[in-house]
Design brief:
The protein is α+β, with helices and mostly antiparallel strands. The protein has 2 domains: 2-43 and 145-206 and 291-349, FAD/NAD(P)-binding domain, CATH 3.50.50; 88-138 and 210-287, D-Amino Acid Oxidase, subunit A, domain 2 (D-Amino Acid Oxidase, Chain A, domain 2), CATH 3.30.9.10. Helices cover 26% and strands 26% of the residues. The protein contains 7 helices and 20 strands. Strands 1, 2, 10, 11, 12, 13, 19 and 20 form an 8-stranded mixed β-sheet that branches. Strands 8-7-15-16-17-14-18 form a 7-stranded mixed β-sheet. The protein is globular, with a radius of gyration of 21 Å.
């Protein structure tokens, strides 16, 4: 029997963030992952402290940035690679009215660190921009696919990753902690993404899920280094490759990409992008989204050794490091959870 501190179930952004927390704390653990949930792999990987549709601040954006940026720097140092690319976002204005709303928003204390007051002229022949750009600061892109791949390789080399499905029915609650197959652990942390819907201990939580689809395009001659937002995001990946996304569909829970989503993305892209392009790939994933757009953190009310770390939604790159730290502080330091993240806010469902 292998004695460890924690079993982590799932290796998306939430699972990686919690595993990194345990590495920093010197705790023993193992991760179970069958790679059945791919929302983190498909994700555009943006971190953006604003909501550009309405020019408002994202929830706890300043605090999350203060944790997320050092977190990704620590992982880069651990793995010896670069994943965090600090790139500005340029918001294309559709009218003078939007420009005025931008200036009003930039005067607010919560947004002034992020929204530049200097509007930028378009210098890219590939874009039609009649009303200039607004620049969002302290933004960037995390190469999530490479991060998850390299972190999994690191865990494998350390003997900390089990590439297999987790069988919830095999948990034995006899004695202290839990026993699962050859492991004896103090606790299990479920970071399964949308797979939580199949978890018998936490499936009643209101994890609704939203499907997101992205396109990878080859656009010769665009030569854009900033992220551009105008209905869709255009994210430079290097060379002539760009990721365009994303959709946000609540009802469709199918796993594969759809023709409707492709049309939706290309229609919006062609409203302002004037160059020919080639579709390289089309991918889809179901984000673990909660009805109130807040994470799901906490302890099971009956099985006190079971915990959940989920509900990162479309902002997992920014939120996951904060949520993972909050859960580890709750478990090891008895720090209270933020009521907005604590699953006890849904106590009637537990």
């Amino acid at each position: 029997m292998k004695q460890i501190d924690t079993i982590i179930v799932g290796l998306g952004l939430a699972g990686v963030a919690y595993a990194e927390q345990l590495l920093q704390l010197g705790k023993s653990f193992v991760v179970f992952s069958d790679q059945s949930q791919n929302a983190s792999v498909v994700a555009g990987g943006l971190y953006n402290p604003t909501i550009l549709k309405r020019f408002t601040a994202a929830w706890q954006a300043k605090e999350q940035l203060e944790i997320a940026l050092p977190f990704y720097a620590q992982i880069e140092a651990r793995l010896g690679s670069t994943f965090d690319y600090k790139v500005p976002i340029l918001r294309r204005f559709a009218s003078i009215e939007e420009q005025n709303l931008w200036f009003q928003a930039a005067d607010k204390e919560s947004l002034s660190p992020f929204l530049s007051l200097e509007l930028l002229d378009n210098k890219n022949i590939g874009f039609s921009v009649p009303f200039k750009f607004g620049e969002v600061r302290k933004t960037g892109r995390v190469a999530t696919k490479a991060l998850l791949r390299d972190f999994a390789s690191y865990l494998t080399a350390k003997g900390l990753l089990e590439n297999q499905s987790f069988e919830h029915a095999a948990i034995d609650f006899k004695g202290r902690g839990v026993q699962y197959k050859e492991y004896q652990a103090q606790q299990i942390v479920f970071a399964e993404g949308y797979g939580l819907k199949q978890n018998p201990f936490f499936r009643d939580l209101p994890l609704e899920g939203t499907k997101g689809e992205v396109l990878t395009l080859k656009i010769p001659g665009l030569d854009e280094v900033s992220i551009v937002k105008s209905g869709v995001f255009v994210i430079p990946l290097g060379g002539d490759l760009y990721r365009v996304g994303s959709t946000y569909f609540w009802r469709d829970k199918t796993l594969g990409p759809t023709a409707d989503a492709k049309k939706f993305l290309l229609d919006r892209l062609e409203r302002f992008m004037t160059l020919p392009y080639e579709i390289i790939s089309h991918a889809a994933g179901i984000r673990p989204t909660v009805s109130d757009r807040r994470p799901l953190l906490g302890r099971h009310i009956t099985h006190r050794c079971l915990y959940v770390l989920n509900g990162m939604g479309s902002r997992g790159v920014l939120i996951a490091p904060t949520a993972a730290k909050a859960l580890s502080d709750f478990i090891y330091n008895d720090s209270p959870l933020d009521p907005e993240m604590d699953i006890l806010r849904f106590s009637e469902k537990l």
